[in-house]
UniProtKB/TrEMBL annotation:
InterPro entries per the UniProt record, alphabetical: NUDIX_hydrolase-like_dom_sf, NUDIX_hydrolase_dom
Ranges of residues in domain Nudix hydrolase: 176-304
Record bears the keyword Ribosomal protein: no
Keyword Chloroplast found: no
Cofactors required: Mg(2+)
Keywords, sorted A to Z: Hydrolase, Magnesium
Stated name of the protein: NUDIX domain-containing protein
Native source organism of the sequence: Streptomyces chisholmiae
Renumbered residue ranges of the record's region Disordered: 315-337
Highest taxon, organism lineage: Bacteria
Pfam families, A to Z: NUDIX
Amino acid sequence: MTTVSALVTDPSGGVLLVRAPDGGRWALPSGPVLPGAAPRESCVRCVTAATGLVPKLGAPLVTGWYGDGRAGARATRLVFDGGRISASAVPRVRGLRAVPPEVRFVPPAELPSVAGAAEASVAEAALAARAGGRTAYLEDGRPPRVLELMTTYGIVPWVHSGSAWVWHPEPVPTEVPIRQSWVWVFAPDGRVVLYVDTAGHIGLPGGTLEPFEHRDPVAAAVREVREETQISITPPRYLGYLLDHPPGGGPVARVRMAAAITAVGPVAPDPATGTVHRRLLVPPQLIAEVCGWGPGADAQTAAAIRAGRALGVAEPDPEAPVTELPAGGVSGQPASI
C-alpha cells in the first residue's frame, strides 16, 4: 500500500495538520493512492478534501517505508511539497474556525506534542528536505544511520568490489601474494577509525605493501595508518584475509589487522597521494555497510570486535555517535579521545 501526504505551511511557518473525523490523532493531510490515479493526483485530492482548496504540489520531499499495522506488512509513504499557503487563503481553509478545530497550523516546535513523535519526525524531515532542496528517505520514521553519516560527511554512494571477496580467518597461504593490509584501528571507547578522502570515498586505513616490506602486512599496516591518518598504533594483530580474484590475474590476499590508537597527530597530506583525509570514529557494527562490503563481512566484523576486546578497548556501543577526530590532533593520552 502507498500513502500520500502533503507538507503545507502558513506564512509564519506553521505546519498544516488534520485530525481524523473520529477526533483521533493529528497528522499531515494524507490519504491512500486511489485506484487508477498517480500518487501526486491522489495527494492533491486529499489536501483539497482537508482544506477546500486545490494545492499546486511540488515534488516529493520524503519517501518513507514503514510497518502498516499488519503483521510483517510494510507500506510506502510519499510526502509531497504543498508549498506555503497564502495569507488570504488561510481564513478560507475549511474547519479552521470549528470548535474543536479539525484543521490547524502548528509551529514546528509543537509538532511532537500535537501530532506525536512519529508523525512529527516525518514532518520535520519534510521541512528539512524542503530547506535543503533534497528528498529525504526514512525507514520507520527515521533516516538509516548510514545515510545520515553519508550526508553529514559527504560520503558518496558507490559499488565496491570488496563485496565479492571471501573472508578467511587462517594465515595467508605462502603461494598467495599479499596485495594490501588494512587495519581496524580502535579508539578507547570501542569505535573504529575510518578515513574519508576528497572524492567522498571511505574505508579502513591501510594500503598496498611496498617491495621493501617483503610480504610483511604488519609493517605495511603501521606505515599506511601513519601516512593516511597520522595515527600511531599498537603492534597490529592479524585477523584474517580476504581472497580476491581480480579479472585477468591470479588470486591475491588483502589482509585485515586490528590495533589500538596510541597517539593522534595533526592531519597532513598522504605522501603517496597528497590527499588530506578526514578521520571519523564509527561504531564497528556500521563499518561494513558504510564501506559497501555487503553482508559477507559479518565474520570479519565479529573477528575485529573480539580483537578489540583483547586489546583492552571498551565494548563497542552500536548506537554510539559518529564523530570526527580534530584536524589538529589529540594531545595527551588516547583516553582523551
